[in-house]
């Protein structure tokens, strides 16, 4: 059904067709960041997302592009669970890239819809589902949505088991791991039970700090379902955007990391950034936006005490 939607939309929607065709010419380079594989993708169409103004004033002054009434007439969707709409993303990173917004205009929040994320991962088992927090890469923080990309695209999907640093806890039919992938900070839930995965996620959620004036802890989340298990990657965040995002001159690098970047594919919409970005730059960006080693250790200890 999803493949039919993609075929139909690429046939009828010129913007989407052109941007998916352009993916074949997207440049990619591979970097080793402290022993962890990362890719960098030069993708000019993603300037729409990477450069999105997400301050309150800018959001108030624009129409919400995820509300059904504001979608292009040519954009079609598939309903999911009565209150989501599965859409083709017209500005793709993946060869198959979906956006899955709520039908109602409600704020981007994960706690009330993590269960839906697990359902999506199971229903769309060829895809990895991802969630960007309202200040963690979401270009529509005012409208709840997930995205999905075909599996096998992000290095972390295959590489994570070889990066395991230790197990925080076993909990019923689930395990909670943490990875040795600094300066990224990664927790992994592996669970054959949906309820257990939800309870573990709730423990992690409640263990994370909420910044003053914010509604939820800063995080990015990836979820996939395979061989009867959910695998959920949680990246707790310390900061929205790195210093290089607003730096002047040569120090400027338009990087606004979201789930895909933390999954191992850094998106650069500007060619000069693609050409100059190094493993050192990625390490620096991650060290700014992810939890520090000491904060991550405290978080793991706090979670352990709750289980």
UniProtKB/TrEMBL annotation:
InterPro entries named among the record's database cross-references: Ap4A_phos1/2-like, DUF4922, GDPGP, GDPGP1_C, HIT-like_sf
SUPFAM superfamilies reported for this sequence: HIT-like
GO cellular component: cytoplasm
GO molecular function, one term: hydrolase activity
Top class in the EC scheme: transferase
Matching Pfam families: DUF4922, GDPGP1_C
GDPGP1-like C-terminal domain sequence ranges: 172-306
Protein name in the entry: GDP-D-glucose phosphorylase 1
């Amino acid at each position: 059904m999803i493949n039919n939607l993609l075929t139909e939309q690429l046939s009828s929607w010129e913007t989407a067709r052109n941007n998916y065709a352009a993916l074949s010419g997207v440049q990619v380079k591979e970097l080793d960041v402290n022993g962890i594989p990362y890719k960098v993708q030069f993708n000019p169409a993603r300037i729409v997302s990477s450069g999105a103004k997400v301050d309150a004033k800018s959001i108030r002054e624009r129409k919400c592009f995820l509300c059904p009434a504001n979608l292009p007439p040519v954009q079609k969707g598939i309903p999911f669970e009565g209150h989501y709409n599965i859409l083709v993303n017209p500005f793709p990173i993946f060869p198959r890239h979906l956006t899955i917004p709520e039908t109602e205009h409600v704020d981007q929040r994960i706690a009330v819809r993590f269960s839906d994320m697990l359902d999506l991962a199971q229903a769309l088992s060829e895809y990895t589902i991802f969630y960007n927090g309202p200040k963690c890469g979401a270009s529509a923080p005012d409208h709840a949505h997930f995205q999905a990309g075909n599996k096998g695209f992000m290095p972390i999907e295959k590489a994570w088991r070889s990066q395991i640093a230790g197990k925080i806890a076993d909990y019923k039919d689930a395990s909670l791991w943490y990875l040795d992938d600094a300066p990224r900070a990664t927790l992994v839930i592996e669970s054959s039970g949906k309820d257990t995965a939800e309870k573990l996620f709730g423990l992690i959620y409640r263990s994370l700090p909420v910044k003053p004036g914010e509604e939820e802890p800063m995080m990015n989340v990836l979820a996939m379902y395979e061989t009867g298990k959910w695998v959920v990657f949680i990246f707790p965040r310390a900061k929205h955007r790195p210093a290089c995002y607003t730096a002047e001159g040569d120090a400027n690098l338009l990087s606004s990391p979201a789930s895909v970047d933390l999954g191992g594919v850094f998106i650069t919409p500007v060619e000069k950034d693609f050409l100059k970005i190094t493993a050192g730059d990625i390490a620096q960006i991650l060290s700014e936006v992810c939890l520090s080693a000491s904060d991550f250790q405290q978080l793991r200890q706090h979670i352990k005490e709750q289980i």
